[in-house]
């Protein structure tokens, strides 16, 4: 959940990581890592046991054994790059597909829906070729590791067999060597095989951003908390400074593109200042647990999403406004042009209805319509950046 909420997460990447990515992590955590523990312990135990029975065999194993991890590391470096390319291709495909689905209405309206199928096909082809390339490397490396391990076992077994024929070694010692020698190589071979099965999981873990050790400090109680914009610069806002007292109703006015909605975005925590700070009750909003903060804020966006769609835009706006005002427990109300699509008569009625409700509740609203200005305690003008 913390990853999903982390700022800057891109939808396509997140969709790939939390679906296929999560499945891919299991072979790494439950397969490769435990196998690495065995690969570190078992060969040492075999060498120590054989050192007491047949020093030559123990030395042969000790010398040939490192060849397996050396070859595995050489092939592994190659595998890592290929797997990363494969995962990137999958993320690009997932992200693009998601964008196309989201924007299908607009694409159809402009007659560009068909063109997208070509792009999706190209991305799918890229993913197929990246996957085939990863598989080729995986098969090749399995072959290399099997070959190295088999030759190493032969280098131990053949001399022991010859010495047994010459009478240079007892039968029970030769049997012990022949039975134990393959066991020294087995965990390393298995780790090599697990490495390929788990490479995607490792790439996924590398892609998940470093998450903060905690989700931020508790959201300040808005009752009695002053909201302060301290020389905030972001998008079109330049050194924007504003103090909002608890319970105050403020209207933001100004030309299109001046940054009124950006001010609401800053208060929601969706937009982060490039410089300056937004303080609530003296706490920098950047440090506040965003999920908890959003539970305290009621927001009506400029273009509300309301199901069903068969409502008119004005009706949709009224539903969205009622939905925001129904959040009686909220400590801050952010309303972006709440009456923009209403006729003057309906607007007057809506404003009459919410007048009593908003009195004494901290409210920031974006106002283009003059009727809204009578409903607030203060009007703040935001000028377009020069
Ligand atoms: N997601 C975004 N990323 C980057 N810049 C953006 C983004 N959204 C808006 N902007 C830019 O930020 C500036 C301020 O936009 P904003 O929507 O805050 O203006 P506004 O005053 O609310 O305008 P309007 O009255 O037309 O709604 C504009 O120049 C706009 O292009």
TrEMBL record:
One CC-aspect GO term: plasma membrane
Topological category with respect to the lipid bilayer: Multi-pass membrane protein
Is the keyword ATP-binding assigned to this protein?
yes
Keywords (alphabetical) are: ATP-binding, Membrane, Nucleotide-binding, Transmembrane, Transmembrane helix
Q: Name one Pfam family in it.
A: ABC_membrane
Any keyword Nucleotide-binding?
Answer: yes
- Major place of residence: membrane
- ABC transmembrane type-1 domain residues are 1-200
Compartment annotation:
Cell membrane
One GO term in the molecular function aspect is:
ATP hydrolysis activity
Q: Which residues cross the membrane?
A: 29-52, 58-77, 137-157
The chain positions of domain ABC transporter read 222-386
Which PANTHER family does the entry link to? ATP-BINDING CASSETTE SUB-FAMILY B, COMPONENT LINKED WITH THE ASSEMBLY OF CYTOCHROME' TRANSPORT TRANSMEMBRANE ATP-BINDING PROTEIN ABC TRANSPORTER CYDD-RELATED
Name by which UniProt lists this protein: ATP-binding cassette domain-containing protein
Taxonomic source organism? Lentzea tibetensis
Lineage, opening ranks: Bacteria, Bacillati, Actinomycetota, Actinomycetes, Pseudonocardiales
């Amino acid at each position: 959940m913390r990853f999903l909420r982390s700022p800057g997460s891109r939808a396509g990447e997140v969709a790939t990581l939390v679906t296929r990515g999560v499945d891919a992590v299991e072979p790494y955590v439950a397969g490769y890592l435990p196998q690495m523990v065995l690969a570190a312990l078992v060969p040492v135990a075999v060498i120590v046991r054989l050192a007491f029975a047949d020093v030559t065999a123990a030395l042969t194993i000790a010398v040939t054994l490192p060849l397996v991890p050396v070859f595995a590391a050489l092939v592994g470096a190659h595998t890592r790059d290929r797997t990363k390319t494969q995962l990137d291709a999958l993320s690009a495909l997932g992200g693009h597909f998601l964008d196309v689905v989201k924007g299908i209405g607009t694409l159809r309206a402009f007659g560009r829906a068909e063109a997208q199928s070509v792009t999706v096909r190209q991305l799918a082809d890229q993913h197929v070729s990246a996957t085939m390339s990863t598989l080729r490397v995986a098969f090749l490396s399995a072959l290399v590791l099997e070959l190295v391990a088999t030759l190493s076992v032969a280098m131990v077994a053949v001399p022991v067999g010859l010495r047994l024929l010459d009478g240079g070694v007892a039968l029970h010692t030769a049997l012990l060597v022949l039975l134990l020698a393959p066991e020294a190589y087995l965990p390393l071979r298995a780790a090599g095989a697990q490495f390929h099965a788990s490479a995607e999981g490792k790439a996924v873990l590398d892609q998940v951003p470093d998450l903060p050790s905690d989700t931020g400090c508790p959201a300040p109680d808005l009752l009695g908390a002053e909201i302060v914009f301290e020389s905030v610069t972001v998008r079109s806002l330049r050194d924007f400074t504003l103090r909002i007292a608890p319970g105050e109703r403020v209207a933001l006015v100004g030309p299109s593109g001046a940054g009124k909605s950006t001010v609401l975005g800053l208060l929601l925590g969706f937009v982060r200042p490039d410089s300056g700070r937004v303080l609530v009750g003296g706490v920098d909003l950047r440090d506040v647990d965003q999920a908890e903060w959003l539970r305290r804020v009621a927001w009506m966006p400029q273009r509300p999403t309301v199901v069903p769609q068969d409502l008119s835009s004005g009706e949709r706006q009224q539903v969205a406004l009622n939905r925001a005002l129904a959040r009686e427990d909220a400590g801050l109300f952010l309303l972006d042009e709440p009456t923009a699509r209403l006729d003057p008569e309906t607007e007057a009625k809506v404003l009459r209805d919410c007048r009593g409700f908003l009195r004494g509740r901290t409210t920031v609203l974006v106002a283009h319509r003059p009727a809204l200005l009578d409903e607030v305690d203060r009007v703040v003008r935001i000028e377009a950046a020069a």
